[in-house]
Amino acid sequence: MRNFITIEGCDGVGKTYQTRALKEYCLQSGFDVVFTREPGGSDIAEQIRRIILDANNSAMDDLCEAFLYASARIQHLHDIVKPALSQGKVVFCDRYVHSSYVYQGIARGLGLDQIVALNKIAVGDYMPDFTVFLDLSPEQAFMRKGGADKTDRLESVDFSFHTKVYQGYKSLIAQDPSKFEVIDASGTKEQTQTLIRSALVKRGVFPC
Prior knowledge:
The chain is globular, with a radius of gyration of 16 Å. The protein starts with a strand and ends in a 6-residue tail after the last helix. The chain is an alpha/beta fold. The mean pLDDT is 93.
């Protein structure tokens, strides 16, 4: 089994904090793991990330956005994920194909089948073994965060978009719940981190 785990959730849910806390825990525990993110993760992919998220690019076509995400993903896989997995390392990725499914396929209205097909070309068989989903509604997430980041093109989209994103994640999970670990992210940061680690123990990624 390739130990490829992705972390997903709506904007403002706390993925960045939780991923960083998990990385610190792994380093302290001496686990041989790789942490990376999308879009980005490697030099070329990070350049694409800046184009995608730049608030000045508000006129970007939705299909262009979808292809940019897929392009960054191809490069990121080549540079970071595939080499690490080939060495037997555990890889944690902050966002991956499920983000494209819900953000572009569902919330942007491009069609889930079309975005799944596009990303099949991009990733081939490199799908996550399972996905950790931080479950918190957009209302709760942005309230806790203090509002959307206006410099981030995706966060600054109207609120109905983020509601569609959340509903999209829920729909994907319902279709194949065995591929997800749903984490209640409504508690404190520490409580959420404890739930994530417990889920990883249950999945056999971490020792008991």
